[in-house]
Amino acid sequence: AGLPGIPLAITKPDFDFVLLDSNGKKTRFLQEVKRHLGLNNVEIIEFRVENYHASPGFDTVISRAFSSLEQMIQWTKHLIDTNGMW
After folding, report:
1. CA nearest to 7, candidates 54, 64, 85
2. How far is it, in rounded angstroms, from Cα 32 to Cα 71?
3. How big is the CA angle at 20 (ends 76 and 55), to the nearest 5 degrees?
4. Residue 50: what are its φ and ψ, rounded to 5°?
5. Fewer Cβ atoms within 10 A, N terminus or C terminus of the chain?
6. Predicted confidence (pLDDT) per residue in 11-24, tens digit
7. CB 16: neighbour CB atoms within 10 A?
8. Residue 62, CB half-sphere, CA atoms under 13 Å: how many?
């Protein structure tokens, strides 16, 4: 449903957010939310996190739906910039 990305994008319009989900139904919903709310600071990507690569890396990676913290760190460590954080 875009949590926590959509609320953060609304409250932090000067920050850029990339919302990543492998479920097409969810990403289509997020595209509609983005359009309806005029969130120009949001990019929505349909991709599996372990296969997605960003250059440069992200300052921060957050999630609400990994099965464990250990799994989140394992599958997202390649997305974190040198001084980034989870």
Report:
1. 64
2. 30
3. 60
4. -70, -15
5. N
6. 999 999 999 999 99
7. 13
8. 12
Burial of 56 (0-12, 13-18, 19+ CB in 10 A): exposed
Dihedral sign for Cα 50, 71, 73, 45, please. positive
Phi, psi at 17, each rounded to 5°: -130, 135
Tokens of 34: 């983005």
Q: Helix/strand/coil (H, E, C) string of the chain?
A: CCCCHHHHHHHCCCCCEEEEECCHHHHHHHHHHHHHHCCCCEEEEECCHHHCCCCCCEEECCCCCCCCHHHHHHHHHHHEEEEEEC
